[in-house]
Each structure stands twice: as C-alpha cells, then as structure tokens.
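Late entry, evening session. Most of the bench is empty. Finally got around to the prediction I had been postponing all week. Sequence below, unchanged from the version circulated by S.P.
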Amino acid sequence: MRSAALLAAALTLTGCAHRWSGPEAIHPQPNRPYSQAVRVGGTYYFAGKIGVTDSTRALTTGRTAAETRNILESFRALFTELGLSPADVVQATVYLADINDYDEMNRAYAEFFPTAPPARETVAVSGIVSGARVEISFIAVKHGRR
C-alpha cells in the first residue's frame, strides 16, 4: 500500500497523473452499436468509414479511388469538427475488398497525406459492408493546441 502511495505522489510531482474520466463516445449511431469515434484523453479512435455511393457503384474504372476520396473527405469534415487535422493522424488501417486495388487506393490516399503520412497497414478482406471496395479507420492524437 505504501508503494502505491509513493507511486501516486511521484506521478503527481512529475505531472504524469491525470484523472481518468473514461472514454467519450462521439456521435453514437442511433440503432447501431457503435460510435463514429471514441476519445480517451487526447487520443481519438475512429470507426471505419466506407465511401460507397450510387455514383461510385456505377463507375467501371476509378471506383476505388472515388470511394477512397469520399472516405477521406468525410474524415476531414469530422476532424474539423473535433479540432483535428490529417496531421494529427498517427495510425491508419485500410481494408480492401480486392488487393489488386491497392495502387489505385494508394494514389488517392496520398493526396490526403502529401507529407508525413501516418503508420498504416492495408489488408485484403473477403467483403466490406454495403458492397464497398474500401474501408478506412484512423487513430489520431490531438497535440497540445486547443
């Protein structure tokens, strides 16, 4: 017990202690068991987004790029609302329905992160909800600005 008190005192003195208030759900989805994002401290965990629309489904070429751009623009709007920018993204996960679409997705993705892109993995999956070709999720950290 004494060591726990000493650790708490040391953390307080070094400025590492903070109150845990639990995760904050951002835009919980009505009738669906998820939120668009969850904030824990200055870290934001974003749910995956898809960019499939009637117009992207109609494309015979460029569909993956169009979906990727739709996803990233949707994230840009949410980042702006939360006081974040693409520069705050530290981790990305990209899911592709067809790994052969990697180059097309990557070119569109690079437009969103022209410099200092986040760490990322890209995986091929057997299917994405609503027949989408791409799904992307992010983790972002809000840096010291408010």
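Two things to note before I forget:
Residues 63-81 form the longest helix (19 residues).
Residues 99 and 141 are 29 Å apart (CA to CA).
Will write this up properly tomorrow.
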